[in-house]
């Protein structure tokens, strides 16, 4: 098994690295990695309905979609991620096979952890690890988080959403009470010591191991994948399953309700309902916004073609855009 101890903490890099290693190597692997504060979204989720958009914007938190299914998780440098890539697997594998080493390792530290539900590891009934898998050809990639000393308040804030606004077939995250491993240790331990401990433990349970360090060539291929996929709005947001957003726009001239239907990231339909005090017909805006990508930049660009006051008296572009994004 190849053991990869990755020091990079950029979430775009790390998600692209997983895909690159899965698709370009024909060997079993184990990788440990950490991300700077970020949200990692499941393959089939509606990104906007899973994140606290205002918080994410205010703190410039990258939101990155991954290959595997499941819900949205928060990462920071207090969270360690582990990835197993196993060749010669024809289907999804038992989650327990890949999480048992973590449970066993924690037992050596006197921490009692258990597997629960479909994809969680718990200590005292609280989650510290979420897991997911992805199949590629005859391989399975299993990855999981390990909350060791994460900022739990930031985790809750980043994932705090008002889900009633969105309707669609996107996979919803399963909210849990969470805990950090370090709170359950009988003695102080640094996160990097814990990371070393996991790597040591893994290298002992497998006999035939080799450390592998990413080469210049690997890194340049990973960088290409970042630019073509992992850093793009299309993959992280646009790729969401189709959804409808229900919201209300409050502006000095009144209140209007509206629905936006979004498919492949673009507005296919938008309808405003209510009393309008603007002097122009609202259907012009409805037509104007069809085909616009459901993001702030594209909405601003489309709306800059008109005088917003002609439709929403006393309002401005920013207010209308935040409304249409479902932020307020
Ligand atoms: N980092 C982290 N670890 C454990 N649990 C978390 C974390 N962040 C949030 N949560 C909690 O899990 C739920 C979502 O649970 P849910 O079961 O919906 O989703 C998951 O667990 C997905 C795990 C994906 C693991 C990948 C491994 C490497 S890249 S990401 C969320 O609402 C919080 O309550």
From TrEMBL:
Residues 24-210 form the BPL/LPL catalytic domain. InterPro entries: aa-tRNA-synth_II/BPL/LPL (IPR045864), BPL_LPL_catalytic (IPR004143), Lipoate_protein_ligase_C (IPR019491), LipoylTrfase_LipoateP_Ligase (IPR004562). Gene3D superfamilies: Bira Bifunctional Protein, Domain 2, CO dehydrogenase flavoprotein, C-terminal domain. The keyword Nucleotide-binding applies. One of its GO terms (biological process) is protein lipoylation. GO terms for cellular component: cytoplasm. Pathway: Protein modification; protein lipoylation via exogenous pathway; protein N(6)-(lipoyl)lysine from lipoate: step 2/2; Protein modification; protein lipoylation via exogenous pathway; protein N(6)-(lipoyl)lysine from lipoate: step 1/2. It catalyses: L-lysyl-[lipoyl-carrier protein] + (R)-lipoate + ATP = N(6)-[(R)-lipoyl]-L-lysyl-[lipoyl-carrier protein] + AMP + diphosphate + H(+). Its EC number is 6.3.1.20. Keywords: ATP-binding, Ligase, Nucleotide-binding. One of its GO terms (molecular function) is lipoyltransferase activity. This is lipoate--protein ligase. The lineage of its organism: Bacteria, Bacillati, Bacillota, Clostridia, Peptostreptococcales.
